[in-house]
Design goal:
Blueprint lengths: L4 E2 L6 E2 L13 E3 H8 L15 E3 L6 E4 L17 H6 L6 H5 L2 E5 L4 E5 L4 H4 L4 E2 L4 H15 L10 E3 L2 E2 L2 H16 L5 H16 L8 H18 L14 H13 L12 H16 L16 H5 L6 H16 L13 H21 L5 H13 L11 H12 L2 H8 L3
Helix pairs in contact: 6-7, 6-8, 6-12, 7-8, 7-13, 7-16, 9-10, 9-15, 9-16, 12-14, 13-14, 13-16
Bound molecules: iron/sulfur cluster.
The site of iron/sulfur cluster has 12 residues, from helix 4.
Length: about 425
């Protein structure tokens, strides 16, 4: 079994600060883990919620999710915001998914790539020790994952570039490396770097890769990089605004999903609540008047207010660069970590997060620009690659439409003004 790690996010720091946020999201465990936890002496523990502790992921499924208390916390979360299983039996006794968070290990041929969930406040705030310090733990977790999933890093096929187009793992890594280099090129503002990535995707989508492998592929990618350098408009003011109907309505349709944060969803399944969500979604699509308070950080504001220019300050670029480099380098943006999207479509879905982050950060006027961006990244990444709605064919169709009609790069430029 292969077990090497590559592309550790060297610019990223992290330590767990026990905020318990990750104990309020869905954790899926195996049947074996369920049996192991049931065998622990936890039933009469006053810090553990009454049973049932597990619910099947789907009828007849061999996978289970940990249940939650009415306030949204995991059944094993103590009043002191600690995991009771870990407190009494050590980290090894916890479900694997809880041990791994906020890391994501992605198979990439002869190695694992390390991604991170920015829905963890410490990751979003870059708070703690360098992630490189966790390498030993991550190697150990990659061994556990190989046992847990029964697969090695080389058992997963490389993601498609698009339907009918597939490269080998080393060549996929060459493509990704070029995208990472573009995002790290500080000669441009971050928004233009992402517009250049979209241009690479567009050219790549029109290319036959059959005879492009190894060094030939590297030379081709270098030529594409040179071409997008001259082709992509340099300044945001050189870009036309998004189409009021197609661009902005489809953008706000996605925003209605990404801006939401429900930490008490386990106690809130009433019909009234569901109807309220539909209404809030409709108000996002309509895009005028007050913005529905779909997360606890949103102050009172209106769509009109958030449409006003607010400028993308240079100090925000560094935080955004960290986010996009981690997502690209780890391959978290395509294949199984992102609803099996092919590489180019996954890249487009990742770029769409930028106008959403910038729209949300405009609302957080009580925070410094960098803090506001971190807050917006936290909200958006809570959904990216995880919210099942984003896997729905019609939502993916809307995203493709935005990209194919050239609206995506306009949105990137528009919300960077
Ligand atoms: S969300 Fe992050 S900081 Fe908070 S408990 Fe989980 S891992 Fe720790």
């Amino acid at each position: 079994m292969s077990n090497s790690l590559q592309s550790l996010p060297i610019m990223q720091n992290w330590d767990c600060h026990s905020c318990s946020d990750c104990c309020r999201i869905e954790a899926v465990i195996t049947d074996e883990e369920k049996q192991r936890i049931e065998a622990l002496d936890l039933a009469n523990d006053s810090e553990v919620a009454p049973k049932p502790w597990f619910a099947p992921v789907a009828r007849g499924s061999q996978k289970w999710k940990l249940t939650h208390r009415p306030d949204g916390g995991c059944v094993f979360l103590t009043t002191g915001n600690r995991c009771r299983i870990q407190e009494r039996y050590g980290a090894d006794a916890k479900p694997f998914v809880c041990r791994l968070f906020p890391f994501v290990l992605i198979p990439a041929g002869n190695h694992w790539r390390v991604g991170m969930r920015f829905s963890c406040p410490s990751v979003a705030a870059n708070s703690g020790r360098p992630v490189a310090d966790a390498e030993k733990d991550l190697v150990h977790l990659s061994h556990l994952l190989e046992r847990h999933a029964g697969r090695s890093a080389d058992s997963a096929p490389p993601p498609l570039l698009q339907a009918g187009q597939q490269l080998s793992w080393p060549d996929v890594c060459r493509v990704v490396q070029v995208l990472v280099e573009i995002v790290q090129d500080r000669g441009d503002r971050l928004e233009r770097r992402l517009r250049k990535c979209l241009a690479v995707a567009r050219i790549g989508g029109q290319t036959q890769f059959d005879s492009l492998q190894g060094n030939r592929l590297s030379k081709y990618l270098q030529a594409v990089r040179n071409a997008v350098e001259t082709e992509v408009p340099r300044e945001v003011v050189d870009m036309p605004p998004p189409d009021p109907l197609l661009g902005r309505v489809l953008f706000r349709t996605h925003l209605a999903i990404f801006a939401r944060r429900d930490r008490d969803e386990y106690g809130a399944s009433s019909i009234r609540r569901r109807l309220g969500r539909v209404l809030e979604g409709w108000r996002f699509v309509r895009g005028n008047g007050p913005v529905p308070r779909v997360n606890e950080f949103l102050p009172k504001t209106s769509f009109e207010e958030l449409e006003r220019c607010s400028g993308m300050l240079p100090e925000m670029d560094e935080t955004l660069e960290r986010y996009y480099v981690v997502k690209l380098n780890s391959l978290q943006f395509c294949g199984p970590p992102n609803f099996d999207l092919p590489l180019w479509a996954g890249l487009e879905s990742l770029v769409l997060t930028l106008p959403m982050i910038l729209w949300l950060r405009r609302a957080f006027t009580d925070q410094s620009p960098v803090d506001a961006v971190q807050q917006a990244i936290l909200l958006v990444d809570d959904h990216f690659g995880g919210n099942p709605m984003l896997g729905f064919p019609h939502i993916q169709y809307l995203l493709r439409t935005l990209a194919q009609r050239g609206e995506l790069e306009k949105l990137v430029a528009w919300y960077s003004r």
